[in-house]
Specification:
12 strands, TLDc_dom, globular, 6-stranded antiparallel sheet, mainly beta, 4-stranded antiparallel sheet, TLDc domain-containing protein, 29% strand
């Protein structure tokens, strides 16, 4: 009687939670949420980043953002800009809402926007709310086929209902709602490669 030898057991590589940011980036963002001066270590992050939307999976139509992210609060939007090493984003502590006929600016005192250290980008930039009354915009229903996540000083925008095909996504170079400028480009407009939205959930 011969014994059948089984192949050695291999450990499957762990799938990354994001195709844009690293565990270190998530730790840095978590520290900003908690207003810590010292960044969490990757093993000590008190939050789980739960993927809600990924452009390459769910599509880049603006309406898709409003359909999927409606009623989610405590979310982080991550955007990879085309042709550079730039990763920018924003944290929205209040809920995205797709029901407003006339649109509404939300008060989001604890919100912020940011750019992350990556490749040739040597330092991350955190930009906290300066004008909390207008820092988040829940876009009016008629505009949701053009505008995606809207952080006042920057937002995703497309006339073609496709964020990656347009070059009119916007980031201001003169901070109005937030303390600091997060891009150094001479142009306010950019194209994207991908974007992700995460719900930030405190671990039990």
């Amino acid at each position: 009687m011969s014994l059948k030898l089984l192949p050695p057991r291999t450990n499957e590589p762990k799938e990354s939670f994001s195709t844009i940011i690293s565990e270190e980036h998530a730790a840095e963002i978590s520290s900003w949420i908690d207003r810590r001066t010292i960044t969490y270590s990757t093993t000590n992050v008190p939050y789980k980043f739960e993927l809600i939307l990924r452009g390459t999976k769910d599509g880049f139509a603006p309406q898709t953002f409003w359909n999927i992210c409606h009623d989610h609060k405590g979310t982080v939007v991550i955007i990879k800009i085309k042709g550079t090493d730039e990763i920018i984003g924003g944290y929205n502590p209040v809920a995205w809402n797709n029901t407003y006929i006339g649109g509404k600016y939300e008060k989001a005192i604890d919100g912020f926007i940011f750019s992350l250290k990556n490749g040739n980008i040597q330092n991350s930039i955190l930009s906290r709310v300066k004008d909390s009354m207008g820092s988040i915009c829940n876009v009016y229903k008629g505009g949701q086929n053009e505008y995606g996540p809207h952080f006042c000083d920057f937002y995703l925008h497309s006339k073609n209902s496709d964020f990656v095909s347009d070059n009119i996504n916007y980031c201001a170079n003169d901070g109005y709602c937030y303390e600091k400028v997060i891009r150094t480009s001479s142009s306010n407009f950019f194209s994207i490669v991908n974007y992700e939205v995460f719900k930030v959930i405190r671990k039990s």
